[in-house]
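Render this sequence as a predicted structure.
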Amino acid sequence: MAPRRYGVTVVEPIEVRLPDELGLVTVAFWLEDGTGAVRARNYVNVDVYTSRLDLTTERTEGSLVLRFVPGDFIGSSWLDPRIGPRGSKFGATGAGWVDYAIGLPDDLDLQHLKGIRLRFEAGARTAHTRVDWRDTRHMQQGDYPQTEARKVPTEIAVWVNGVRIGTARLPDDPADARGVLSLHNSDYWEAGSYGFLTPLEAGDALTRRIVDNAQGGRLIIRFEVPQGPGAGGLNLYGNRMGAYPVGPTVFLDT
């Protein structure tokens, strides 16, 4: 291309075929001069979504995949949690717990499970502690404090059917351009907020204990923020909020 000062240079369209599945694509552009030096950069996010492919249950090779929405909890010790649009986010400060009930298919043989894995996007709920002023004249309900150098973390434990399968330290409650789904889909509700993609896994021994405790054809999953200095609350994100198009997901390995 031949750039023109104070003008716009039109180039031929670039076409890219995306995978036929849900996802969040970041298309990055950069312009180099004849020496290879970068003269300009930009990017655009493409939110690939259709409700037709947004499945709560899916069978893959070797696993049964079960997904749930953060707002669809069955119980919580937090008296007034913040729930995002269409249940897409659960947020609560300090220590506490929230429970989810995941129904299991009738044809699933729990005795043959080889393992249970969880994957979810979560963060602390501590952003407002970074605000040093409390003048209500300048605080709007939809505001969400942006990411800063000072991090305010939290610690969580995750239980399945009363069996603790793991813990995680979530380093902050960030909100910036990386929370693209929160910006695209939440009408400026806690804009730009996002968490950290967190995997946990129950091996064979823990899986057997979880199966033995199963009642009523379901799994009870608890996210807990224990009492103590690490009690920085919890933000749990669905697949239409945060930085990743991934809601809380259970993998039952068969």
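Summary. Residues 55-132+143-253 form a domain with the Jelly Rolls fold (CATH 2.60.120.260). Residues 204-212 form the longest helix (9 residues).
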